[in-house]
Specification:
Mean pLDDT: 98
Shape: globular
Order of helices and strands: EHEHEHEHEEHEHEHH
Number of helices: 8
CATH superfamily: Aldolase class I
Radius of gyration: 16 Å
Strand order of the largest sheet: 1-8-7-6-5-4-3-2
Number of strands: 8
Distance between the termini: 11 Å
Low-confidence stretches: none
Number of domains: 1
Bound molecules: D-xylitol-5-phosphate, zinc ion
CATH class: Alpha Beta
Strand content: 15-25%
Helix content: 25-40%
Length: about 220
């Protein structure tokens, strides 16, 4: 069985000590850096943009998983490739021509991700699943860290897993929002491959140990 991945969300890091927090993740059992870019239009919050991603990339030694919560993501695909993104995830709800967007992401050498808001059915990906490297199921409404996990997510994971298997796709299932030690194992058992965790990791007394705990739970 493939090992299950942990992606700490930098949104919950201490921005005044960003290098320290990036190095903590470098030295941890985490697999990816999850990086939330918000524009204040697609979601009701603004996080950070290009200069901060550039600073993260200077120190990060693991896969950069960039989650765009922005309108018109097509406009910035080349820029995010130049900034070192390994995976670029766009929101289904922000893309009128999703198939074209996915091809553009791949043509810039990145893996292509699609995020689904809690109200969006996984069935909308039926005709494009084989083009997607990662589906990010939002288990909170995007825009903020520290929200509570939406229980309907388990059902969506099972439906998505079924869709992936039926289409012989290699797509990974990523869960984003409200992940902690109480739901990690159940999410993996339902079919998740990647767990994003922000506040649960960075607000804990030992982020290193918390990442280890999640990694062990996910692979137990
Ligand atoms: C929410 C972001 C998440 C967020 C998760 O819009 O996409 O990545 O940082 O944070 P927690 O783990 O605190 O729910
Ligand atoms: Zn995210």
């Amino acid at each position: 069985m493939n090992s299950k991945l942990i992606a700490p969300s930098v949104l919950a890091a201490d921005f005044a000590n960003l290098q320290r927090d990036i190095e903590m993740v470098n030295n941890s059992d985490a697999d990816w850096f999850h990086i939330d870019v918000m524009d204040g239009v697609f979601v009701p919050n603004i996080s950070f943009g290009m200069p901060v991603l550039q600073a993260i990339n200077k120190h990060a030694k693991k896969t950069l998983d960039v989650h765009l919560m922005i309108v018109n993501p097509d406009k910035y695909i080349a820029t995010f490739a130049d900034l070192g993104s390994d995976i670029l995830t766009v929101h289904f709800e922000a893309c009128t021509h999703l198939h074209r967007t996915l091809q553009a992401i791949k043509s810039h050498g990145m893996q292509a991700g699609v995020a689904l808001n809690p109200h969006t059915s996984v069935s909308v990906l039926e005709d494009v699943i084989t083009d997607i490297d990662v589906v990010c199921i939002m288990s909170v409404n995007p825009g903020f860290g520290g929200q509570s996990f939406i229980e309907n997510t388990y059902k969506k994971i099972k439906q998505l897993k079924d869709l992936i298997i039926r289409n012989n796709a290699l797509t990974k299932i990523e869960i984003d929002g409200g992940v902690n030690d109480k739901n990690a194992k159940q999410l993996i058992d339902a079919g998740a491959d990647v767990l994003v965790a922000g506040s649960y990791v960075f607000k804990s007394s030992s982020p290193l140990n918390t990442i280890k705990t999640l990694k062990n739970l996910a692979n137990s």
